[in-house]
Amino acid sequence: MIRSALAEAAVETGDAVLAHSSLSSFGRVGGGADAVIDALVDAVGREGTVMVPTHTWDKINLDNPVFDVRETPSCVGAITNVLRQRARARRSLHPTHSCAGIGPEIERYLAGHETDLTPCGPHSPYARLMELGGKIAFLGTGLACNTTLHALEEFACVPYLFDGFHELYSVDYDGCKIHVPSIRHSRGFSRRFGELGPLMEKAGIIRRAKCGNASIEVVDARGMKAVFAPLVAKDRFYLLAGEIARRARHWYEARPKPHRGPKRA
Description:
The chain is of the alpha/beta class and 265 residues long. It has helices spanning 2-8, 32-44, 78-84, 106-110, 125-132, 148-155, 197-203, 221-234, 242-254; strands at residues 16-21, 49-53, 66-68, 90-91, 99-102, 135-139, 162-171, 177-185, 206-211, 214-220. 31% of the residues lie in helices and 22% in strands. It is globular, with a radius of gyration of 19 Å. The N and C termini lie far apart (73 Å).
């Protein structure tokens, strides 16, 4: 049932898919989280790659600065915690916004994530998904949790995104502790990610299906970048929610401008 819904939403053999998920949205699922993961793996086949976000921003901070890739639990759902513990799974080493996945291309997406100073930088799985033409699946979550759009915010240097520099650390699969200085994302601004479906439909970059009580939505990541990167570059507050966007624009336009001194002759 889940497998057929994924096929209807255009998840195909050989795809690289980043899946955001809510197990409870499906209702009762025989096999639980493992059944959903198995359906994703089956849908992309032996040549495909399945990833999930395994974020830890809720617990890794200045007071608790060490992320252990093997042990630190994800804060974004049961499916993500089951997948990251599978025998063949690998997980990126970013201390707050890691991804975990399975498949022959997984290292291509995860390697070097910890070298980015920011959560969704050029070496992140989110940026690589858009670069390499992967897909983003939303399994019962809606579009509001689209982490990959944060990568577009980073590319556009939006002025509201970051909230402080933290000295963090990651422990890798060999038990080695790595220094990962990180600029954290601010959590104080509401986004309009969940409202972008109609524009995605108009651009032909989203497919939908139903599975029990859950809606499945699958977005072409490269197409999403092509649609939204120019809009965010033109208006750096484009992805903020209505009144928040209006107030942020007003603040940005009214802020004191830096004094550059007299022009030289």
